[in-house]
């Protein structure tokens, strides 16, 4: 072998080593560059129960994305579809793959929003909420099918919502909530109208103590059965899971299991509802996140500071913590929040704890709408620069995310954290692992 061939071989090996993902050691800081990938230990016996990311750079913005290796990319509706289905597949195969995927990622539970429009967008439903009723299952599935080029629609029944998919010149009913489909004698999946006229098909498919008569009544009471296109208009709104950590920002993803006596009692009570037979009785897991924006130093060399927070998950609460310098009274600082109509409202409900001014941002209504962004205006009453009286400002936002994003999916055995950045910087990472429950890795197919 020529000497220059050996040098080229060594160079290629070093390049591959540099591009490969580095295994995470909890509590360490990592130098990052564009598209750095850090990986958790390679095991399917544990899941990541907590991840803390802190951007230690003074000038570099980091875009983190946590994912399971070999699992679908969940950052947008387009990426979800492209990473699950292949364009060469038949429409039936595309629909079947999305059908199993949506059931695996979503849990049957009361929706978090009274205004459910946002939950009909698949990427929001899967990434931020992770639970819903039958309408969220059906709309999420139908909207993903349409994104994949497979015609699909949503049907309103009496007390239930299902989907229909069009392929092979016919409509076929899919129920992604109960994960039910029904075949005729020739082995072809039937449509909603066929179940309306021939509900006996359902008897051959129902198992266990599921109430077949109740399920048949959903289709035979045809007065209110109709396709509803209301759900599908929300799926086309562009929403991407793009988290940005600005210098000194910090984010915490915490997967919490509810082991309270009330949670166990509730699961026990559910067993008495025969309609719940096909719902997977998973333990209550919650995705509780915290995003902290830190402002200090020269960022406070202004008389008035407007802070715009853009976060792709649903924000549940916001608190501003203003750390005052010694001898400064709380009355010298004021905070206002931007309301949905664009006007600014002054916050009066602040508390003083030592040198901290705690301002719960109650001027934002978290109940009636999905909140993913907000703006705060902080300033001094005398108009002088804030750095004279304020050491630092922490904006603490609590948000929710789907905990199943942190649980192994299918054959995925290793989680990765992508840290995209245009320049070199440092990110501190802390991670905790716990034993994965059996139900988290179980793949169910009922057909």
Q: Could you describe the largest sheet, including whether it forms a barrel?
A: 9 strands, antiparallel
Calculate the mean pLDDT score and round it.
75
| Beta-strand share of residues | 25-35%
Structural class: alpha+beta
Biggest sheet strand line-up: 2-23-4-12-13-21-15-19-18
Topology, number of strands: 23
CA distance, first residue to last residue: 58 Å
Instruction: Please tell me how large the radius of gyration is.
Output: 26 Å
Number of helices: 9
Q: What share of residues is helical?
A: 10-25%
Low-confidence stretches: 11-20, 273-278, 439-447
CATH domain class of the largest domain? Alpha Beta
CATH hierarchy: architecture of the largest domain:
Roll
Q: How many separate domains? A: 3
CATH topology title of the largest domain: C8orf32 fold
Write a compact overview of the structure shown.
The protein has 447 residues and is of the alpha+beta class. The protein folds into three domains: 22-72 and 241-283 and 409-441, Jelly Rolls (Sandwich); 77-234, C8orf32 fold (Roll), CATH 3.10.620; 290-401, Sandwich (Jelly Rolls). Helices cover 20% and strands 32% of the residues.
Tell me what the structure shows.
- There is one protein chain.
- By secondary structure, this protein is α+β, with helices and mostly antiparallel strands.
- The protein folds into 3 domains: 22-72 and 241-283 and 409-441, Sandwich (Jelly Rolls), CATH 2.60.120; 77-234, C8orf32 fold (Roll); 290-401, Jelly Rolls (Sandwich), CATH 2.60.120.
- Helices cover 20% and strands 32% of the residues.
- The chain has helices at residues 3-19, 77-84, 91-105, 122-129, 134-147, 192-197, 212-220, 261-270, 438-441; strands at 22-23, 28-32, 36-39, 46-55, 63-68, 107-108, 131-132, 152-157, 160-167, 170-174, 226-227, 250-257, 285-296, 304-310, 314-324, 333-338, 344-346, 351-353, 356-360, 373-380, 390-401, 415-420, 425-435.
- Strands 2-23-4-12-13-21-15-19-18 form a 9-stranded antiparallel sheet. Strands 1-3-22-5 form a 4-stranded mixed sheet, with no helix packed on it. The protein has a 4-stranded antiparallel sheet with strand order 10-9-8-11, with helices on one face.
- Helix 3 packs antiparallel against helix 5 (134-147).
- Mean pLDDT is 75; it is low at 11-20, 273-278 and 439-447.
């Amino acid at each position: 072998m020529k000497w220059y061939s050996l040098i080229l071989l060594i160079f290629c090996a070093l390049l591959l080593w540099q591009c490969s993902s580095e295994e995470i050691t909890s509590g360490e800081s990592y130098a990052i560059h564009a598209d750095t990938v850090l990986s958790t230990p390679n095991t399917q016996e544990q899941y990541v129960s907590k991840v803390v990311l802190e951007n230690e750079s003074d000038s570099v913005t980091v875009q983190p994305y946590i994912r399971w290796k070999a699992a679908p990319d969940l950052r947008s509706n387009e990426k979800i579809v492209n990473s699950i289905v292949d364009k060469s597949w038949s429409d039936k195969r595309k629909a079947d793959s999305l059908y199993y995927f949506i059931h695996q990622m979503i849990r049957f539970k009361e929706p978090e929003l009274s205004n459910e429009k946002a939950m009909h967008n698949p990427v929001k439903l899967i990434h931020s909420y992770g639970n819903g009723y039958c309408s969220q299952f059906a709309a999420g599935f139908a909207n993903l099918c349409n994104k994949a080029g497979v015609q699909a629609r949503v049907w309103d029944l009496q007390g239930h919502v299902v989907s229909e998919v069009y392929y092979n010149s016919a409509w076929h009913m899919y129920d992604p909530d109960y994960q039910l489909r029904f075949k005729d004698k020739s082995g072809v999946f039937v449509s909603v109208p066929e179940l309306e006229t021939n509900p006996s098909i359902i008897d051959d498919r129902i198992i266990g103590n599921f109430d077949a008569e109740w399920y048949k009544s959903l289709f035979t009471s045809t007065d209110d059965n109709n396709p509803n296109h209301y759900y599908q208009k929300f799926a086309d709104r562009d929403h991407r899971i793009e988290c940005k950590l600005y210098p000194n920002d910090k984010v915490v993803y915490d997967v919490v299991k509810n082991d309270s006596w009330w949670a166990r009692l509730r699961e026990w009570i559910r067993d008495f509802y025969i309609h719940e037979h096909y719902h997977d009785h998973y333990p209550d897991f919650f995705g509780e996140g915290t995003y902290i924006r830190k402002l200090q130093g020269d960022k406070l060399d202004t008389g008035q500071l407007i802070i715009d927070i853009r976060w792709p998950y649903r924000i549940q609460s916001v608190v501003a913590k203003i750390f005052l310098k010694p001898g400064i009274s709380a009355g010298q600082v004021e905070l206002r929040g931007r309301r949905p109509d664009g006007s600014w409202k002054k916050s009066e409900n602040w508390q003083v704890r030592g040198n901290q001014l705690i301002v719960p941002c109650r001027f934002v209504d978290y109940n009636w709408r999905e909140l993913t962004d907000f703006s705060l205006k902080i300033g001094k009453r005398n108009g002088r620069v804030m750095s004279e009286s304020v050491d630092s400002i922490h904006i603490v936002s609590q948000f929710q995310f789907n905990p199943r994003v942190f649980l192994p999916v299918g054959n995925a055995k290793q989680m990765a954290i992508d840290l995209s950045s245009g320049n070199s910087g440092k990110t501190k990472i802390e991670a905790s692992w716990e034993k994965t429950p059996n139900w988290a890795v179980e793949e169910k197919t009922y057909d």
